């Protein structure tokens, strides 16, 4: 069975001691790892929590986003340089946490639009940034997995076809791809076909319901998803990413205006659901 993780953004975007009881309970449920959002400037907290997670025999992955002032596809090379600096800082903090995988839509700035379709120059700029980031990540033993988002949150990579095009341009072994079932449910015609498309470079998977609530409670085609993950022999993380309003600042920044599921209901029933689907489809 693949390793199963849970993203603690359901409680907080900050990495702090407040998450230790959450981590303990996730371990008790059966999770193999915890996914953290990298953004808080308290650098010491990352190593502290990383040591704590390692001491209780769990693993970590991380996620982050870039803002418009550090956009990898900005026409201004000075802005693109800032994106490299932010990605390297994130790699350092992820290394402090003990993470081996970093995911997120860092191919471009979150929710930053050009009021037109993407152009090839932007894929080239993004690839150049990600290639340099891949070199840096390789030294830390970390895999970068950029994520395709839905059309309301980005425009460079909405589909696995676009993401595959970008990863091919990058051409670095430490830069692969991420698949998120929530975004794919919006943008892809068939999730199975999308997974087959990205399978040669697939490095990380988010298990997310169509409304960001508990996996299995909505209309994502889960049998198709898990059957295809087994078919392509995916061996990476299956990490639940669900959102709440527990951290209002973060919730406001991503347009979460209501509760979809309570975090522990999501964690407990989501873990059971992934285990059942994995056993059913031979993952």
How would you describe this structure to a colleague?
By secondary structure, the chain is of the alpha/beta class. It has one domain (4-281): Divalent-metal-dependent TIM barrel enzymes (TIM Barrel). The chain has ten helices and eight strands. Strand 4 (101-104), helix 4 (120-140) and strand 5 (143-146) form a beta-alpha-beta unit. It is globular, with a radius of gyration of 17 Å. The model has no long low-confidence stretch (mean pLDDT 96).
CATH class: Alpha Beta
Average pLDDT for all residues: 96
- Extended strand count: 8
Annotated CATH homologous superfamily: Divalent-metal-dependent TIM barrel enzymes
Question: How many domains in all?
Answer: 1
Layout of helices and strands, plus pairs?
Blueprint: E1 4-7, H1 20-29, E2 33-37, H2 43-55, E3 59-63, H3 77-97, E4 101-104, H4 120-140, E5 143-146, H5 160-170, E6 177-180, H6 181-187, H7 191-198, E7 202-207, H8 222-231, E8 238-240, H9 248-253, H10 263-281
Parallel strand pairs: 1-2, 1-8, 2-3, 3-4, 4-5, 6-7, 7-8
Helix pairs in contact: 2-3, 3-4, 4-5, 5-7, 7-8
Protein name: Sugar phosphate isomerase/epimerase family protein
Organism: Negadavirga shengliensis
Keywords: Isomerase
């Amino acid at each position: 069975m693949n390793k199963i993780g849970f993203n603690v953004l359901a409680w907080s975007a900050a990495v702090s001691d407040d998450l230790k009881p959450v981590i303990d309970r996730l371990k008790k449920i059966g999770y193999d790892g915890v996914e953290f959002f990298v953004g808080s400037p308290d650098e010491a907290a990352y190593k502290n929590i990383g040591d704590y997670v390692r001491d209780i025999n769990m693993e970590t992955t991380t996620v982050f986003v870039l803002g418009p002032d550090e956009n990898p596809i900005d026409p201004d090379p000075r802005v693109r340089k800032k994106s490299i600096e932010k990605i390297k800082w994130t790699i350092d903090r992820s290394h402090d946490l003990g993470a081996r995988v970093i995911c997120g839509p860092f191919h471009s700035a979150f929710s930053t639009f050009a009021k037109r379709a993407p152009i090839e120059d932007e894929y080239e700029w993004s690839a150049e940034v990600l290639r340099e980031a891949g070199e840096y990540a390789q030294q830390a033993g970390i895999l970068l997995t950029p994520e395709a988002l839905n059309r309301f949150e980005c425009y460079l990579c909405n589909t696995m076809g676009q993401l595959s095009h970008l990863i091919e341009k990058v051409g670095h072994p430490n830069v692969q791809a991420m698949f998120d079932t929530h975004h794919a449910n919006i943008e892809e015609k068939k999730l199975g076909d999308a997974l087959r498309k990205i399978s040669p470079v697939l490095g990380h998977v988010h298990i997310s319901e169509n409304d960001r609530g508990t996996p299995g409670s909505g209309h994502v085609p889960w049998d198709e998803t898990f059957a295809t993950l087994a078919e392509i022999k995916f061996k990476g993380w299956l990490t639940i990413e669900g959102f709440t309003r527990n951290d209002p600042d973060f919730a406001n920044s991503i347009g979460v205006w209501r509760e979809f599921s309570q975090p522990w209901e999501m964690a407990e029933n989501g873990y059971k659901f992934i285990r059942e689907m994995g056993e059913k489809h031979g993952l």
